[in-house]
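Bit of a strange request maybe. I'm writing a small parser for structure token strings and I need a real example to test against, not something I typed by hand. Could someone generate the tokens for this chain?
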Amino acid sequence: MTNQSKMTVEVLRYNPEQDNEPFLAKYEVPYDSQTSLLDALGYIKDELEPELSYRWSCRMAICGSCGMMVNGKPKLACKTFLRDYSGYMRIEPLANFPIERDLVVDLSHFIESLESIKPYIIDNKAPELDGKPHPSAELAKSRTKQTPAQLEKYRTFSMCINCGLCYAACPQFGLNPEFVGPAALTLAHRYNLDNRDNGKAERMKILNGKNGVWSCTFVGYCSEVCPKHVGPASAVNQGKIESAKDYVFAMLKPQK
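Reply from user aminoacidic:
Good idea to test on real output. This should exercise your parser:
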């Protein structure tokens, strides 16, 4: 490093096998204008505290692994630079998730929520004739065609990297751990908007449920902390519109 400075980085430590509760430990870290928080944690682990635990992978704000709280705000460690802080940083695991060890949290509920909304194209196949697949390759191909305008409807919502920052920012998830949450609801809306998908009715059961879109109180902080500018608050509120439509259509539908 050139033109080095030093910063005090305070990191929350917790080993459930030996600690009764989490505690903060201070480390002096050298840095320059290019040093990211992920670099700083690497220095601490390599030079000062080899037992420090944290998640990381790509170092390029793509994998979403290195989410953590920086001075109380959810951020990606690889996109956070020491040069932007004045001599002190407090690093803690993502809020609203159970701590497994140090900066590593249990994301089980988050993963289960993502799986529950079926984040993939559903039932996109050509119709059958007399129980056999349609022979027309062109018809089958037409089911996967998409215009730029159709892509644009959901493109922004497809940029989610599943980092969990929006869950750490969401006060409703903090109060109700069963809330499906902004990222999962955003992905559900993304696939509901995709013209190639036919699974909206399955997803709306979750969106309409007690832990679905109506649990959101629209604080909007989830969109503020999103590193990819996905706008989960917008997706969730568009989901509320679709949910309201479902309710109205159900009321107007003739009873059998």
